[in-house]
Design a protein that fits this description.
Double Stranded RNA Binding Domain; 112 residues; single chain
Length: 112
């Protein structure tokens, strides 16, 4: 049974060169909550949304304990860009956890 407390989530959102949107903000928050499942520390997500030419760009910087990850998603609409960037960060968080998982049942530094 896992008695570990779920990680807390802090989200910051910035819009550059475009009007802010509560719908986009809420969607990003909903998608970011999926990343929390793959972390055990406080999660800080900083989203930046912008439009470059015809592309919508979503950038995400995530910090959680020792994990410090960044990703960028580009698509024809902002929702698809958010989906892409959050999927990339979920993948990075899973990969990080696999690398740092203790497979022996002992701590990494307790080699007694």
């Amino acid at each position: 049974m896992n008695t570990q407390q779920p990680a807390q989530l802090q989200i910051q959102v910035a819009f550059k060169g475009m009007d802010s949107s509560d719908a986009v903000r809420e969607y990003a928050s909903k998608k970011a909550s999926k990343i929390v499942k793959h972390t055990s520390h406080l999660v800080n997500c900083h989203f930046v949304f912008l439009i470059e030419k015809l592309e919508h760009v979503a950038q995400l910087h995530l910090t959680s304990g020792d994990l410090d990850a960044r990703a960028e998603g580009r698509a024809e609409n902002m929702y698809a860009a958010i989906d892409e960037v959050t999927d990339k960060l979920v993948h990075q968080a899973r990969k990080y956890n696999e690398k740092h998982k203790d497979h022996s049942g002992k701590g990494h530094h307790n080699q007694e």
